[in-house]
Amino acid sequence: MWPDRRILDLFGIELPIVLAPMAGASGAELAIAVGEAGGLGSLPCAMLSPDQIRNEIGVIRQRTARPLNLNFFAHKSPPADPDREAGWKKRLQPYYAEYGIDPATIPSGPGRNPFDEAACAIVEEHRPEIVSFHFGLPEEALLDRVRRTGAKIIASATTVAEARWLESAGCDVIIAQGAEAGGHRGIFLEEDVATQPGTFALVPQVVDAVSVPVIAAGGIADARGLAAAFMFGASAVQIGTAYLKCPESLITPIHRAALSQARDDRTVLTNVFTGRPARGLMNRFVRETGPISADAPAFPLPTSAAGPLRKAAEAAGSSDFSPLWAGQAAPLAKPMPAAELTRGLAREAQALLSKAAGA
Amino acid sequence: MWPDRRILDLFGIELPIVLAPMAGASGAELAIAVGEAGGLGSLPCAMLSPDQIRNEIGVIRQRTARPLNLNFFAHKSPPADPDREAGWKKRLQPYYAEYGIDPATIPSGPGRNPFDEAACAIVEEHRPEIVSFHFGLPEEALLDRVRRTGAKIIASATTVAEARWLESAGCDVIIAQGAEAGGHRGIFLEEDVATQPGTFALVPQVVDAVSVPVIAAGGIADARGLAAAFMFGASAVQIGTAYLKCPESLITPIHRAALSQARDDRTVLTNVFTGRPARGLMNRFVRETGPISADAPAFPLPTSAAGPLRKAAEAAGSSDFSPLWAGQAAPLAKPMPAAELTRGLAREAQALLSKAAGA
Predict the structure, then answer these.
(1) Which of A92, A338, A225, A82 is nearest to B199 (CA)?
(2) Which of A217, A189, A228, A206 is nearest to A279 (CA)?
(3) Res. B254: pLDDT tops 70
């Protein structure tokens, strides 16, 4: 049925489609729907407390017996940098003034949790079939504990060098995340986003460089991308933005409205929301302070500075300060329930592959 | 034999492979080899005088009866801007000093010719089967004259908006040039390269947006990319960087050596060589003055300022100041004669497509 069954057999799933874990935008409902449809459901844990993670896993395990992917960020928490944070707040002062926000009331501190002791204990307790990491991998002792649970370990590479690094570190599967992808780049070996390869160039080079199966990600939002990924030698695809449009996603009505107007040429990589480059739709905040600003504090410190602006602007019905994460293929996806999207992608991709030989 | 025959029938060629016209890097030999192998041979005219164009066409027509694509730039020549040119030379002063170059001896003036009366007369005289344009299209009166010769007219789009614009202007075929592509971006409706979509996202969206056949370009350097392009609904591919590695290309030994060391994550879009964004391998000049500099004069004025530095550095065996044009898929291509490359790409892509269908 599929040109490559390695991921299907390794994960125990029916369809070569992985739901991209999208912190803050996807939870149990999307994971359940995609899993039940035959793909791999993923739960992003980076913005959840340990209790929230346990609750979400509980809901998922109660409603589906399909394999589950728990996703974590693997960044190092940066040292506090009060000067830089203060400088960034000063840079944003005109916006605070515009919305009547007192910067002194804004709490500082991180807004995204790296994989740590508490997260590892959850993995050991709940034994997800797959554990995926973004921004590299956690320290070896923690990774070993994950491995000992029997979980398959996967992580994102944005370059061939990162793919090789992840394979050496023992990843069972590598996600080749092309520059088209929405949300945070998994980039971890360097910082320059100007040299990041697109999916068309990255996937075949990663396939050539590693011996583990490769999941293609970035710019895939319909069946054509899924079929094309197999031509490059990928064993599955990871899809994010298309699932954001599903009713099961947790995005705000403002984000949903912006996605419905998305264009191929109106997304950009920006670090002004979180300190790490992530792709989203261009808006006022990104245009005026970025898209890439050398003044933004290290990930994830800037999240607290932008938060009140987003809240105030959204209360006024504006998307000017919202992180409108989206990949470059956003316009290709139609809003529909996630199970229907998953099955439709698979069915249409198989039809394309069958037709491939032509007349 | 192929899933889509529209381009094959329209151009009268056997294989869905267009040799990318690469000004300064490809000439009659590559065009002849690719054309004779069954693809579409292209002659880039932007850096040739009218006499040189006539000579090259003469050589090609003498040695092959296959269809020929003449390629031209369609930019507007910028007004002279002595202040900005002087500022740019001042910016480069430390490099001139390093190489003992007297900036006063550097001639100014354009280094790339736009399609004009003289070029149009050549088209009318030699009647190439296909005429392609980069940077938009020439003024309507000239375009009408080209159309009246019976030539099929094709042009590059880097966004869906550009594709729609080109279709409205009467293009017979549109090249969807993803961000992975080496050399100059065809971008003409705007200037921001940060929002340029990758091939994976661009091609299906262009296919959906226009009714004319689409040629996929950018990141395609082996048979996998050719097979994948058909999955997206493209009718052919345009390939550049892979042909640079052929013995028939006109690149310097320094460029050839750099290409053999290319990596997926070591190219960047830069405007410091010509004033327009073009993708090439990172080197000292690009790193230190760009990659995108707001100080660079308008295309093609900076070419004269960088020229003497390139010449001096290359004489010393250094690639520090050379424009090392390359796409992100450069590592996928192996050096071999162009006819062999063309036939191999087609044969292997057909095998991939057949295998996909049979699975």
Answers:
(1) A225
(2) A217
(3) yes
Residue A71 CA to its chain's centroid (Å): 9
pLDDT digits (tens, 9 = 90+) for B258-280: 999 999 999 999 999 999 999 99
pTM of the model: 0.97
Inter-chain contacts counted by CB atoms under 8 A, chains A and B: 190
Residue linked to tokens 């949300």: A183
Find tokens 């009547």 and name the residue.
Answer: A100
Say if the Cβ atoms of A197 and B264 lie within 8 Å.
Answer: yes
B64 close to B30: Cβ distance less than 8 angstroms:
no
The rounded distance, in Å, linking the Cα atoms of B123 and B70 is 8
Within 10 angstroms of residue B80's Cβ, the number of other Cβ atoms is 14
What does the pLDDT look like over A210-257, one tens digit per residue? 999 999 999 999 999 999 999 999 999 999 999 999 999 999 999 999
A295: CB partners within 8 A, 6+ apart? A84, A87, A88, A91
Chain B residue at shortest CA distance from A208: B332
Judging by DSSP bridges, how do beta strands A278-281 and B278-281 pair with one another?
A: unpaired
Tokens of A265: 């040429």
Best of B159, B162, B200, B353 to substitute, by most chain A Cβ atoms within 10 angstroms, is: B200
How far apart CA B67 and CA B11 sit, in angstroms, is 7
pLDDT tens-digit map of B86-111: 999 999 999 999 999 999 888 876 67
* Separation between Cα atoms, residue A15 and residue B267, nearest integer Å: 35
Which residues from chain A sit within 8 angstroms of residue B267, using beta carbons? 195
